[in-house]
Amino acid sequence: MTCRLFLLLLILLGMPQGASGEERASSGRTTLPEAAGLPVRVHIALRVLNVLEIKEVSGQGRLHLELTQRWRDPRLAFDAVAHGLAREDKVGEEADNYLKAIWSPGLSLDNQIGDKDARTVALSVYANGEVVVIERFESDFRFRMNMDAFPFDRQHLTIGLSLPRYAQQEAIVLTTEADRPFSGVEDTLSVVDWRPVGLRFTNDLAIGWNARSYSRLNATVTIARYAERYLLRVFVPIAAVLAVSLFVLWSPGLKEQDKGGLIFSSLLALAAISFTFESSFPGSISLNTPVAEMISLGYLYLVAVLMFEIALSVAIAHPGFRWRGHAAELRWHLRWAVPAMMLIICVGAAVRALPG
């Protein structure tokens, strides 16, 4: 009898204290739902509600997103007739607490910076065990920006969604035609100089620290810059400065020192414009953009105009110069040929930057 009492005491001491039957049942639901078949398919839908901020040079942006996750866990199935409803809905803190008690894929936003702000969450569990989680939040992301076509550029803002806790043999993230109606980009954005183009998904693999392959889904938001809004701010000032060369080339009776003064003033004005653009539109001058090409060629163009004009004017004015007639003819041709070539080069640089 003493041995039996001692064994019973050991059993009672070994049992977890304070764990209800419901808690013990829920603890068994936090493991991978292998009964649904591996790999578990986590369906994703992403709606871009707003693009709040774009920082081209630093490669960052702030987005307002609605992220929908959907997967099936047979352990959560219930009798809809007995419950009197086809699904159970939970919102806010109740939804977060319920997610901690069941298995969830642990979806990660790979290029997210910081935490999610202004977050709201809603969860629904259907009678067949399907779980749908909808999150709305604002967050900062790091993107790869390409300014080479400024101001005719399109930026591709890619958000990487992966499952870092499970290899691709255990769980994968994907989107299907059934998820597409819940994905997209809103027509109006907070960034005034950009317009939405579209949203596309591509599947990829990520290699973890243990050399295992993990599933990744890339959601790419494409936005295009309103190039026409930059005509007055960018191209008109450049054209106005370069137009001084026409006055130097075609103005009759203008002295050489006056021509030099006009060209040097234009060079200073072009330098001031480049500094202004770089401060107003970071990256527009320091990178290989059409604006940078126009300004760089503008320096060479203005100096070439001054050298050609002064050299040929001196040759024509010298009475003993043997090729005086040829110099006058060459000067007449250069007066329209040099500006025409500069115009063609500038237009070509702008057309080459246009999206195909």
Report what the structure shows.
The structure is a single chain. By secondary structure, this protein is an alpha+beta fold. Helices cover 38% and strands 30% of the residues. It has helices spanning 2-14, 21-27, 80-83, 93-101, 231-242, 244-250, 256-280, 290-317, 324-353, and strands spanning 40-55, 60-72, 87-91, 108-109, 112-126, 130-142, 154-162, 171-174, 184-185, 194-207, 213-225. The strands form two sheets. Strands 1, 2, 3, 5, 6, 8 and 9 form a seven-stranded mixed β-sheet that branches. The protein is rod-shaped, with a radius of gyration of 34 Å. The protein starts with a helix and ends with a helix.
Quickly describe the structure.
This protein has 356 residues and is an alpha+beta fold. The chain contains nine helices and eleven strands.
